[in-house]
Recover the amino acids of this structure.
């Protein structure tokens, strides 16, 4: 059985980091939860589906001072700065590279926030076949940087033609 199969669905995809053609990390958001699927990482235990969490205290966005995605969740004592900006996806058809992550990575990550790693045979297989990470040059060529900041109560700079905007309207 896939971890959080009712959450990690195409309807909840809002964006990705990295390079679309090189196993990007795919970000998901619903009216109540957030999470992401890491497809390739230097630390193999970090590949797979992130534990989903309530989005009550979650905020994220591309920040001007870093030109990259920054995530915070004060309710779970989480802060993460990505190496890349998040590319928000538009409403309508999704690139198959993003929905591919759902099918290929059904397992939960071995690394858990605030817990000891929980390694499964699926996690170990990711270590044996890690995939290819994009180079820093490829990451920087991702396209136009959209600066925005999202929280459940308010979002600033989120383009109206994006899936993130559409999900925000339903909250």
């Amino acid at each position: 059985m896939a971890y959080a199969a009712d959450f990690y669905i195409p309807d909840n995809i809002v964006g990705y980091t990295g390079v679309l053609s090189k196993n990007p990390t795919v970000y998901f958001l619903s009216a109540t939860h957030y999470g992401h699927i890491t497809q390739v990482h230097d630390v193999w235990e970090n590949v797979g589906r992130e534990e989903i969490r309530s989005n009550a205290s979650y905020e994220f966005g591309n920040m001007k001072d870093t030109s990259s995605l920054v995530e915070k969740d004060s309710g779970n004592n989480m802060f993460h700065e990505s190496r890349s900006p998040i590319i928000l996806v538009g409403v309508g058809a999704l690139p198959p590279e993003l929905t591919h992550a759902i099918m290929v990575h059904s397992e939960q990550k071995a690394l858990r926030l605030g817990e000891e790693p929980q390694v499964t045979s699926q996690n170990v297989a990711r270590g044996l076949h890690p995939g290819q990470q994009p180079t820093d040059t490829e990451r920087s060529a991702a396209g136009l940087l959209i600066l925005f900041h999202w929280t459940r109560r308010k979002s600033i700079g989120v383009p109206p033609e994006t899936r993130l905007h559409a999900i925000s309207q339903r909250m």
